[in-house]
Amino acid sequence: MSAPTDRADGPDVLLHRDGRAGRAVLNRPRALNALTHAMVGDLDAALTDWEHDDEVAAVVLTGAGERGLCAGGDIRSIYDDARGGGTATREFWRDEYRLNARIAGYPKPYVAVMDGIVMGGGVGVSAHAGVRVVTERSRIAMPETGIGFVPDVGGTWLLSRAPGELGTHLALTAAPAGAGDAIRCGLADHYVPAGRLPGFTAALARSTPEEALAAFAEPAPAAGLDAHREWIDACYAADTAEEIVDRLRADGRPEARAAADAITAKSPTAVKVALAALRRARRLDSLEQALVQEYRVSCTALASHDLVEGIRAQVVDKDRSPKWSPPTLPEVAEADVLRHFEPLGEAGDLDFEPTGTGGHR
């Protein structure tokens, strides 16, 4: 999904200079380029080097293989670590979220080629970029509620700022967004057909991103979600997850009923915490503040039954039959939701100061 020179062997992150561009290629194609802690460190170190290299005018992020940029964090590793206390995962998230904020404020153009599947942590290293490119193959999603988790990596910041309640719909159902919907929801900016990507990335070696986009970008496909804004905005504006599901079921349209079915199949605790996180993120002033909130939520979820059970059902045993606890939305107590947002105490909150930069600009 990158330029033809990208390889599927060698280090997990391929780094090289390509003319005026610093090229970073996520290189675990058999794992759909899932992020590890070491990969986060490699990307951060490369950004430091390129920030101070006058010969590098822009950074370009792509993914090796034919399926997508990045499927997210390595959740099998998270599963194993969560069962043993979760210390390594908390450190991974601490560095990953710092990287997400760094990408948003990077002083040079950072071009993310969001071709194919882009989920979870893949959104974190791409959707905060200054230049975000999608193709007809793009499928961008925050699917966390399906594994007993909550959108992170700045996902609540991005989704809470989508038009109307579109972000709430994507977060609670875990539905993927194609190119047109991703651009409408503020997850991407530009559309370049997949067949033109080799020419586009090659042009970045000798041209500015603006010049490369002028030569290779095309009008984006229509946003399919626009046709559903009426029921999405009306149903997801409800105060509680239970009322959202009730409104969706009462709407009568098959798409609304399908959304209700999708939500009730997810972890009830994760659904309620995700809704609260999105509503709170709307009132925050910066991406950094949202990441601090997400870190609290993530570390609390790490110690929960549902995260381990969700990964077991979806990734480890693949029986697709998670046993959530509690099993229904009404059984999730408000106190259990609120504790996800409490300071972490001795475990330590994410320790950077909000800058007020506001994330993606």
Please tag this protein with its features.
361 residues, alpha/beta, 2-enoyl-CoA Hydratase, Chain A, domain 1, 2 domains, 6-stranded mixed sheet, 3-stranded parallel sheet, 9 strands, 43% helix, globular, disordered N terminus, disordered C terminus, lyase, HIBYL-CoA-H, 3-hydroxyisobutyryl-CoA hydrolase activity, lyase activity, 3-hydroxyisobutyryl-CoA hydrolase
Protein model, in words:
This protein is α/β, with parallel strands linked by helices and 361 residues long. It folds into two domains: 13-141 and 186-216, 2-enoyl-CoA Hydratase, Chain A, domain 1; 224-347, no CATH class. It has 16 helices and nine strands. The protein has helices spanning 37-51, 75-82, 87-104, 121-124, 155-159, 166-173, 179-184, 197-203, 209-216, 229-236, 241-251, 254-265, 268-281, 287-302, 305-316, 334-338, and strands at 13-18, 21-26, 58-63, 68-70, 110-114, 117-119, 131-134, 139-141, 190-191. The strands form two sheets. A six-stranded mixed beta sheet has the order 1-2-3-5-7-9, sandwiched between helices. A three-stranded parallel beta sheet has the order 4-6-8. Helix 6 (166-173) runs antiparallel to helix 13. It is globular and about 60 Å long. It catalyses: 3-hydroxy-2-methylpropanoyl-CoA + H2O = 3-hydroxy-2-methylpropanoate + CoA + H(+). Pfam families: ECH_2 (PF16113). Keywords: Hydrolase, Lyase. InterPro entries: ClpP/crotonase-like_dom_sf, ECH_dom, HIBYL-CoA-H.
